[in-house]
Amino acid sequence: LFLVCAFLCKYVVAIYLPFLCLLALRKGWRGVYAFCLPLTAAMVGYLLYYWPDLRYLLLYGASYGSLRASGAELWRVYVTSRIELWLIALLALPALVMRDRRATTLLLWLGAIVSLVFQWKTRADFDFWKHAVYPLIFLVPLAVRFILAASRRIGRSLQAQTMLPIVGVLLLCFVSGWTGKSFAYDRVVFWPNVEPIVSFFEGRLPSNSRILVDDSVFRYYFHPPLSQSQMVDPFFFHYKEAEGGAAYTEAVEDAWFDYIVLDGGQGAEAKAMQRAIHGHLQAYTLLLEMPDPSLGQTIQIYQRTALLAAEQPGSGPTVEITQPTACSVV
Fold first, then answer.
1. Is the dihedral of CA 151, 152, 154, 159 positive or negative?
2. Which is more confident, 324 or 102?
3. How far apart are CA 328 and CA 3, in angstroms?
4. What is the reported pLDDT for 158?
5. Residue 279: exposed, middle, or buried by beta-carbon count in 10 A (0-12, 13-18, 19+)?
6. What is residue 90's predicted lDDT score, i.e. its pLDDT?
7. Higher model confidence: residue 251 or residue 36?
8. β-pairing verdict for 242-243 and 238-239
9. pTM of the prediction?
10. What pLDDT, on the 0 to 100 scale, is given for residue 258?
């Protein structure tokens, strides 16, 4: 159950399923009935039910290259920016020569190598900072095992053998955090900085709205109140008989979206979507325009003009803000 949940959170977990099924066979038919068959049935059912979406996901993933790294960038992304990973891998190496639990050690190293090979063969990109967690799952126990073994050999008293592993593990945590820049909070850049957009829509986004965004991160912030089908991002869109850029253009011209949110999204897909709708926003009114507080990207929020007119108050007392004017930078 936990494995299926992990797979639903991150599809890369699927690379471990065949190996886990092979391990389960060591338990004989019990492993087949209790693990292999239920897991296989769950995955096949998921595949059949979501096949159209998974097919588009596979096609998109095969062609996506906005975050691809090469040359000197590879060295920085995989080595100099991930010193803590290779430090832990170095500490995990001595476990290979330890006599006890040799099979477990080999399996853990195999798990780490599978993750790295999968990353290398699919696409080497800037997202390795989050994919590095998979080899760490397998290497950290081996590194701690080496610290425990070294402490037993160095410590001559029971107190020393108790305290040395604690100090060694804490030191490893500190060095890993320092080399991984986990403590450099002043160097963190939040991209995209969604706070201005989320604050703008707080309490004013109807649950039946359709929204176009140039960054898929808003799928996390607008759900709920919106369902995923009510949000369109730069990666894929089908409208009437059109797909891609033509679909974005036609939908905007038809005022199909209630809101359009642009935060200067990075990547070729976001730029292509922005070009597709540029010059076709006659049916929309600009409600907000401001620089992104982190990187200075331009944030823009448009609302369908007809929807805006319908929201105008009727007769009776009203409050109108005259200064600062709409879209002013304060």
1. positive
2. 102
3. 50
4. 86
5. exposed
6. 92
7. 251
8. antiparallel
9. 0.59
10. 92
Distances (CA, A) of 131 to 108, 140, 220, 296: 17, 15, 20, 28
Task: Reply yes or no on whether the pLDDT at 185 is more than 70.
Answer: no
Comparing C-alpha atoms, which of 274, 271, 268 is closest to residue 249? Answer: 274
pLDDT digit string, tens, across residues 214-270: 888 888 888 888 888 888 888 888 888 888 889 999 999 999 999 999 987 777 788
**Structure tokens of 133?**
């967690």
Three-state secondary structure along the chain? Answer: CHHHHHHHHCHHHHHHHHHHHHHHHHHCHHHHHHHHHHHHHHHHHHHHHCHHHHHHHHHHHHHCCCCECCCHHHHHHHCHHHHHHHHHHHHHHHHHHCCCCHHHHHHHHHHHHHHHHHHHHHCCECCHHHHCHHHHHHHHHHHHHHHHHHHHHHCCCHHHHHHHHHHHHHHHHHHHHHHCCCCCHHHCCCCCCCHHHHHHHCCCCCCCCCEEECCCCHHHHCCCCCCHHHEECCCCCEECCEECHHHHHHHHHCCCCCEEEECCCCCHHHHHHHHHHCCCCCCEEEEEEEECCCCCCEEEEEEEHHHHHHCCCCCCCCCCCCCCCCCCCC
Gap between the Cα atoms of 145 and 88, Å rounded: 11
As a whole number of angstroms, the distance between CA 64 and CA 49 comes to: 24
- pLDDT above 70 (res 310): no
187, amino acid identity:
R
Q: Is the pLDDT reported for residue 313 higher than 70?
A: no
Nearby residues of 13 by Cβ (< 8 Å), 6 or more positions away: 3, 6, 7
